Description:
The structure is a homodimer. By secondary structure, chain A is α/β, with parallel strands linked by helices.
Amino acid sequence: MVKLFISGFGTVGQGLAEVLKIRRDFFQERYGEQPVVVGVIDSKTYAVNPDGLDTDAIIARKMGTRTVGDGKYTDSVEVMDSVDYDILIEVSPTDIKTGGTGLKNITHALECGKDVITVNKGPLALKFQDLTELAKKNGCKLRFEGSVGGAMPIINLCHENLIGEHIRSIRGIFNGTCNYILSKMDKGQTFEQALKEAQQLGYAETDPTNDVEGYDAATKVVILANSVFHRNVTFSDVKITGITGITPDAIAQAAAHDMVIRLIGEISDNRLEVAPRLIPVGHPLSITGTLNIAQIDADLAGPITINGRGAGRIETASAILSDLVAIMDARY
Amino acid sequence: MVKLFISGFGTVGQGLAEVLKIRRDFFQERYGEQPVVVGVIDSKTYAVNPDGLDTDAIIARKMGTRTVGDGKYTDSVEVMDSVDYDILIEVSPTDIKTGGTGLKNITHALECGKDVITVNKGPLALKFQDLTELAKKNGCKLRFEGSVGGAMPIINLCHENLIGEHIRSIRGIFNGTCNYILSKMDKGQTFEQALKEAQQLGYAETDPTNDVEGYDAATKVVILANSVFHRNVTFSDVKITGITGITPDAIAQAAAHDMVIRLIGEISDNRLEVAPRLIPVGHPLSITGTLNIAQIDADLAGPITINGRGAGRIETASAILSDLVAIMDARY
């Protein structure tokens, strides 16, 4: 029986709990049993049960009281240590400045010899090398498909399917919010109008800085650079320009030349950058809406392009599911 | 030491031999040694050496004399039985009517407990169920990434990265030759002009029936239906319409509505079909040139689209490489 500890129980954590239910038959057929959730923490409260928690009840409770259990904690790792688990699923809110609780939890789990699945970008962008070395040293798996591109399978595609390739570059759209705004600006909205609409639809946060200044896309560039290109770079190594300076005039001028403006993240031998770029209409990177897309240039396979939903409750949980199945396959 | 037997030494077989050379350092670093080719057969001749063959010399010989060795054979499986190998790489010319030598070789290798990598569509389209059951019974791996979409990673993407998904449908362009012809017709050429150009460039064969009548795309639809959708269908279950009836007038009428015509293969619960379809300009499936593309509709991840080179010496060999690494990883 595989025991999961879920750290963070917002959109993605709850989505994962749902996905585990939706896929009961799949797990039963593949492993003859279900993975069980033995611990859940949010930012202040926790619930643990070595025999498995009722995650439906926890979702209901979270919706009502904003707590996941009666337990209150000051130190997350003490809660983690209080129950026997096999895999930490770290989906707490990301902190791209310090790595925050996520970094602490992932580090602790790996030190304890646990496998880790995370979509938490901060720890990966800041301490990729340390975390992968720690995982290796302790014989643990550290998987993070959902950290870049949500449900778009890019990390494991590069690590597994394209393992024999020399990947020369990746260019892509790694922030759906910016792409939504730019797509709306193509249709004549101003930046402010498009941003407001994105906020109303829940695509952009009240403070949109992280998205519109290109910081979120930059964390993904860092994760790809470290994991796919085996660099040792951090956030500050990325040259970042956001989309706040894009005017309707610039959009119109681009359109006059059959081009659109897209916020492109790029990793290649001599470039580590997030910046608005002119993209010809009809080019794969001219994609509209909240999709994410990546163009991978592989030396043998040639160009490979993939796109998918960059965010969403169930979509991001589906990326965690793919990592979970990979880890469970190795255990059964 | 992993010993390979290569059956078929045309474009793809030679491409694979080259790729094995190009990736010497990769194999050395990952496994501490190289896979060796202990046997090569073409349609009439063979070369075997338990200590490994000089594939450069065989390529040179093949270019000159159209033979791979001094040995002549009447029964391919006798040659296979004459040398100890671990993995059969079956890349002989495909026979979509009977499965031909490819089917015989794959079956024999699996019966002997060998792993098999193939890009040979005929055997997979005709006997998928039998072959996978035989592989399972004998504890062998049967991998075939390159059989659909060349270097576009679709099979292993669905089997591995998306293993936890329920895939509802796949729609895609699975024949680069037809797409090249239709792209040229978009630019004003007639079918005959475009076909002639495709033949001159080596995209289409002298007898283009297999491509332009949609048969080749249909074999890929069958392979996807059986392998990803767990159906038990064969070539004759696919409703097939090719592109020979597409007139410049039809193309012009489509263009007047901002549409293009593309040959789309589709697998869903109630459809197994290859047919020309109207696709809006700007839609991912409106892709031009020889690329292959697939739109996967997964119930949790949502829509995922991937494209890549559907053919080519090194590109197809790169798909074989990805299967080879997966098999070698499990052995080391």
